[in-house]
Amino acid sequence: MDSFFLPNYGANPSIVRLNAIDDEEMPDSIPFTTSPFPDILVSTPDAAEMTVFSTSHNGFSDSAMLGFLPADPFAVQPSPTSSPMLRPPTDRTGSPSTTPFSMDVLQSTLGRDFPQPSWGILTDGPAGPIDISPLLPGTPAFLSPRPNSLARSATSSASPKRSPSVTNEEWERLKKDIKRLYMEESFTMQDTVKILREQFNFCVTRCLEKWNWRKNDTESARQLRRDGKSPVTPNKKTARQQRRPPINSTSSLLAEISARTCGLCEKLLHWVKSLIFRSSKEDVEWRQLNRVGRLPVFGQELTSQVAVGLEHFASGDPDSGFPVLSHMFWDLGDFVRKSDITIYATLLLDIPSIFYEFKNEVPFLNKYFLYLHSLFGEFQKGDSPIANAVQAMGQLTAMDFDQARGCLSQLYRVVADAYEEIQGRDTFDSIERHVEAINATGSTPDTQEVGRIITALDNMQILAASHQGQLQSPNIIEYELWKIELLRSIETGNQFVSRCNRLLESIATVAIDKEWRLWEPWLLWICGEVMYELCRFFDKVGNDEEWAENLEGCILRFRCAITMDETWEELLGWRVVLYRLQLVEFWTEAGKPEQAEKHKRCIRNSACWEAMLREHAELPSFFD
Predict the structure, then answer these.
(1) Contact criterion met (CB below 8 Å) for 343 and 336
(2) 460 by DSSP, 3-state: which?
(3) Which residue ranges does the record assign to the Clr5 domain (predicted)?
(4) pTM of the predicted model as reported, rounded to 2 decimal places
């Protein structure tokens, strides 16, 4: 079939007149996008600008454009090269910000004492038409379990000693991880046994020498062992590297630092996984899943505030960046009171991923981890897994910035595997993290993995339809939007643009009112998200004109959604401000100051910006 069923969503039952925020921003005739609606043009003097519902609130995290990871979730990956929330400053300015800053200024700006917990550095060890044929009766609706990424095949031919309580299956499942910890990451025997016991609940014998694993073999000796040959030299001595370099040598120091960072990364991954498993058993949020069957996620406005503040610093305007970041710091106080499972993604994934894009602002990131850890202690969460994860990430960032960013890219896959292990199948949450992991490295994703996720989304559409008794489910549109986000980096230009336009045309076809400004906020949000994906696509291929056109269209629809329902302002207001800042930079460089000034006025008049200035009247105003 060449199309799919969509719900008959249309105008608000009580259609209200939209008051234009800035009439000059909306011309008499605005195309929907690059020919998505050939017969529909907008023409009204009461044009209003618009914004979006948080993707993370509805199951889409637009703060995590992440890339694909290898099968080993603990392998350090290249740092992300792009952020979902913001266009890197090097796109149009040519280089990152070098604006100096003073922590004293930040301290005075915040006007609040920041407890400085004493952290010791750990040293204990180192396209085509949309087909609904899968939705026909008789199609299996359940997803098959996928093996956890930690389950690996055996690589050693030795027959090791095992504890009587350890089964052969358990041994084969974890043998490669034991070898990785002990051999490749240089953990001591005691630390290896401890990690296995705490993280895997696996009690293993300490007779490591009987496993035929030798730490000090040379590469040639290890290759001989892999080939099944004896590594013994003619004089009957095994070739070995120097057991311990001179104590003052550079290699000794680097090896010690590497061992510490590896240990911190391992602890970070362990604590996040523990948080998810503990929450699945104890947290009431697991029993209050929303209509699409996923855990609620909060904090989209905090992520947008971080992006806006850092954009100001990147553009050389710290006087405007400090108020926004300080506002975000104040909001953290109420945010950490929520359930850990609903806030960990924002605090440990989304906000750090944006900070890591601005290496010159590392002191702000260090202050963020310090302050966040102190807040957990203040609210009796100091010994919780999320507090321990924040502490480990803060220590890792202070020791090795690049290593910390690489560890973050591994975290998405570990989280996704944890959700799958708990549920026994693909879930809305696990797919979300897999999509983020696919974009983490910025490289072209594996088409086989992408195909598996697309199949999982198709199966979830079947489940959604079977639960509601019909195919006209709002979930189906959200699944199609997710497919667009997933395929943006692997489909060719014509295929991807056609896929986006088909979804936009389908939404317009089922809408009751043909004037898109009168659609329900939810439909406006979907259209804005599709335009944002087109914007990111054209930015990647270097088409600046299409990038600006689609970003303008995204803002208009988001603002219209906010006008129809003011509750969307809290979630999407800062995101609109962020996109306007990017357009200010673009139009200024393009030699059109009148367009840049228009967006500056809209930023000054936005509800979220005015509310921020009212709460912190002593902070400097924007664009003064």
Answers:
(1) yes
(2) helix
(3) 168-215
(4) 0.58
